[in-house]
Amino acid sequence: MRDREIRNKVAFDLDGVLIDIHQELVNNIRDQTGCDLSNHTEYSMIGGGVTRANFDMALKRIYSNYKSTIIAEGAQELIRKLWEKVKEPIMIVTARRAQFATETHAVVCRVMGKVPYCLIFSNGFGNKALYLRDYLYFVEDNGETARYLAEKCGKTIFLISKQYNAGVLHSRVISVDGLRDLLPLVRLFVS
Ligand SMILES: [Mg+2]
User: Fold this and answer.
1) Residue 156 three-state SS
2) What is the pLDDT of residue 43?
3) How far does residue 138's CA lie from ligand 1's centre (Å)?
4) I need a labelling partner for 106 at 20 to 30 A (CA). Which of 97, 114, 170, 180 fits?
5) How high is the pLDDT of residue 3?
6) Mean pLDDT of 109-122
């Protein structure tokens, strides 16, 4: 029965993909320390005048303010279309720490509305591959993670272009401006 083989083969990172907290994080750390970290990913912000305590304080505040977190343009439309096609929960794999599970589920609920989801805390970005076995495509904003998943795990990665991830060159890493660019690919994702 061919119909039964049709599944959703795309999964998503959370921060920088479905939602955007980067500017808030940069602003919060700048207010605390005076350092401008616009070009940093959240994994490279600690050091050079920014302590783990500064970083954690910023994260805690931003995660708690989930009601005002920016939802990426096109995210809800894309999620809805995928759901309508196959009625499968949307897979999200985040490197956020599980201690923030409550706030993370709260913000994901805002994005998803009534669409069911599966939210995995990968405990480090290198582990994301463990949870993506059944997925061919992953949408990511971190350049290093994108390269790793493409090179070591054979995934095709759609990398959301950001000022902190320019210059990732790999045949299976495809840069896109945003999730709207993926709307025409729903047929590919659920083939
Ligand atoms: Mg991310």
Assistant:
1) strand
2) 83
3) 11
4) 180
5) 52
6) 97
**Ligand 1 centre distance from Cα of residue 148 (Å):** 14
Domain count, the chain: 2
The burial class, CB within 10 Å (0-12 / 13-18 / 19+), for 126 is middle
Check whether residue 115 and residue 29 sit in a common domain.
no
This prediction has a pTM of: 0.94
Q: Which of 68, 101, 125 is the last residue of a domain?
A: 68
As given in the structure block, the two tokens for residue 152 are 């070591």
Residues with CB in 5 Å of ion ligand 1: 13, 15-16, 141
- Tell me which residue range forms the domain holding 182: 2-20+71-189
Return the amino acid letter for 38: S
The DSSP symbol for 15 reads B
CATH of the domain at 94: 3.40.50.1000
Report the mean per-residue pLDDT for the chain. 94
